[in-house]
Design brief:
Helix content: 55-70%
Structural class: alpha+beta
Distance between the termini: 65 Å
Number of domains: 2
Strand order of the largest sheet: 1-2-3
Largest sheet: 3 strands, antiparallel
Shape: flat
Length: 129
């Protein structure tokens, strides 16, 4: 009886693999492409003295919300207006909202570098490098 269950599961797995093999291979290819790009990026970063700043900005950017687009009704004419929202504040242009977002990202990155010497000294290392 156990052999029958095992054989049934093997056949079912084979059917599922046959049915979804394109999706599985596509997902594995995407994973492999991302992994290769990450490895190439790490190799480039070893030779780039500014890579640390770029990574810090990337991390700070991940911590700040995106600018969202909302459509509101104009109170005077009742026509739809597109507004851009960042941290609850409404902006008339995307450029203005993105500018405020970029300032927020830079402030987060700057705060990281302001705290870095204290964090390194708490580690017990006297060096900053």
């Amino acid at each position: 009886m156990l052999g029958l269950i095992e054989m049934s599961l093997a056949i079912l797995a084979g059917i599922l693999i046959q049915r979804y093999h394109r999706e599985i291979l596509a997902a594995l290819k995407r994973f492999d492409d991302r992994n290769r790009a990450r490895i190439e990026g790490e190799a480039r970063d070893k030779a780039d003295s500014l890579a640390h700043y770029r990574h810090t900005l990337t991390l700070a950017e991940e911590q700040v919300e995106e600018v969202s687009e909302v459509t509101l009704s104009d109170p005077r004419t009742a026509t739809p207006l597109t507004r851009y929202v960042f941290e609850g504040e409404h902006f008339t242009t995307r450029r203005e909202a993105e500018r405020v977002r970029e300032e927020k990202v830079r402030a987060k990155a700057r705060a990281f570098y302001m705290e870095l010497p204290l964090a390194l000294s708490a580690r017990g290392d006297d060096r900053l490098h």
